[in-house]
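May I ask for a single protein's sequence together with how it folds?
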Amino acid sequence: QVQLVESGGGLVQAGGSLRLSCAASGIIFSFDPMGWYRQAPGKQRELVATITSGYRTHYADSVKGRITISRDNAKNTVDLQMHSLKPEDTAVYFCHAVDVVPGGARGSQSEYDYWGQGTQVTVSS
């Protein structure tokens, strides 16, 4: 029972900035990784950025240089700092986390995927 709640979405003009935040609550072992996805109207959900528990990051080519992902392992939060926004960045942004827990069998572990409800980002021309 893990809940992810996003905040920080809104309307911004092209070239502007937004900071999205995601806070997790519930029983959590270890989120690895955490990340952000987005889905534009009529399009499939796509990866924006991920960050591991060891703070390794990965960015989609479309956002490299314009977006920074960060996390606080102690608080189980993940943020997405966006700047130089473009109209094509308009989408619903979803927080995502994978909870990694030890399994009962030798050398086993289990992974559980959690998603936030999404927050709307609209970039006007």
In short: The mean pLDDT is 95. The two ends are 40 Å apart (CA to CA).
